[in-house]
Amino acid sequence: MNVLVTGGAGYIGSHVVAVLHAAGHHPVVLDNFSHSRPEVVQKLERLTGAKIPLVQADVRDDQAVLTALKIHEVEAVIHLAGLKVVGESFTDPLEYYEVNVHGTAVLARALEAAGVFHLVFSSSAAVYGKSDTLPVNESQRLDPAHPYGRSKWHAEQILADLAASDERWHLVGLRYFNPVGCHPSVLIGEAPSEIASNLMPAVARVAAGWQSEVEVFGQDYPTVDGTGVRDFIHVMDLAQGHLTALDYLVQHSGWDVFNLGTGRGVSVLELIAAFEQACGHSLAYRIASRRPGDIAASFADVTKAHQILGWVARHDLADQCASAWAWQQALSAAPS
Ligand code: WQD
């Protein structure tokens, strides 16, 4: 299928493009490069050995999107273009609602005008917020803890209402837990410009000597060792989940959501210890105060994606750390 990947030059998007191509699909990248770089598309062409059509545009530019859909005879869209930094969403919530919510509505309107009704939406476990029960399942009450999570929640609501209004829509939302690692070629990964305040890149930077120590945001949570617990998922498993979602939505109209995680919770200190195994030396860390907006623990119930999509994450924590370390070493070796 001809698949338009919005945000296709970004961290998750570029891996989705690589996996789509490997599966015989024809991905087209739409990206405004506000949080990514054009070189990623060149890397993808090197990686795939194919020409990857590129549309430099913002998803809120409905004419540009409509033109792209028609020119490239798009049959389905995977919508990843969006903002994702939790701290930033507190200081500039309007930008998060304009891009993540309004952007999704404008994109959907353009799809309708082009007669394209197949859409996979990049959502986030952040829509759950503080979870009463763990692991988190898709029917859980949604109570996002910050504007980023709320923007994803609102976008989900738009798509759910759209599907309820018109049976032509085939829509799937994927709730990512914590993406980490890079493509096995080590040609693409999370670019330094994209790296928010996430844990795995911070640990990798300490391992590479770019940072003196890991700041551990709190050791007084009700968890195994007092530090935050998360469900880290390899980006290649995440990308594969988009492929299975695409296959699913071709056969199923309506709206549905799926968790994409491993089902296992890993604490900050457990991740640091696993990374020490991957990089071969100890890593300094300092216990700091809690970070606003953080929840104690979150990890996925992945039964639904397994039973309905036939998808399961295959990379374990050691694979994830080895992959993130390989990427960090590639960044360290790259000309600055
Ligand atoms: C993980 C844990 C921190 C950095 C967010 C978004 C989520 C997704 C991934 C977009 C927490 C602790 C972190 C550090 C630390 N984004 N930590 N020191 O906050 O779970 O998820 O990013 O898709 O939607 O909500 O990820 O990696 O920032 O934090 O101790 O330097 O590591 O407190 O417990 P998070 P994270």
Poorly predicted spans: none
Beta-strand residue percentage? 15-25%
The total beta strand count reads 13
The CATH top-level class label of the domain at 2-180 and 233-261: Alpha Beta
Query: What is the CATH topology descriptor of the domain at 2-180 and 233-261?
Result: Rossmann fold
Mean pLDDT: 96
Gross morphology is: globular
Structural class: alpha/beta
Largest sheet: 7 strands, parallel
Write the layout of secondary structure elements.
Blueprint: E1 2-6, H1 11-22, E2 26-31, H2 39-48, E3 54-56, H3 62-71, E4 76-79, H4 86-91, H5 93-114, E5 118-124, H6 147-165, E6 170-176, E7 178-180, H7 199-207, E8 214-217, E9 229-230, E10 232-234, H8 235-251, E11 254-260, E12 266-267, H9 268-279, E13 285-288, H10 303-309, H11 317-333
Parallel strand pairs: 1-2, 1-4, 2-3, 4-5, 5-6, 6-11, 7-10, 8-13
Antiparallel strand pairs: 9-12
The structure holds UDP-4-deoxy-4-formamido-beta-L-arabinopyranose.
Residues 84, 86, 124, 126, 176, 178, 197-199, 202, 214-217, 228, 230, 268, 291, 294 line the site of UDP-4-deoxy-4-formamido-beta-L-arabinopyranose.
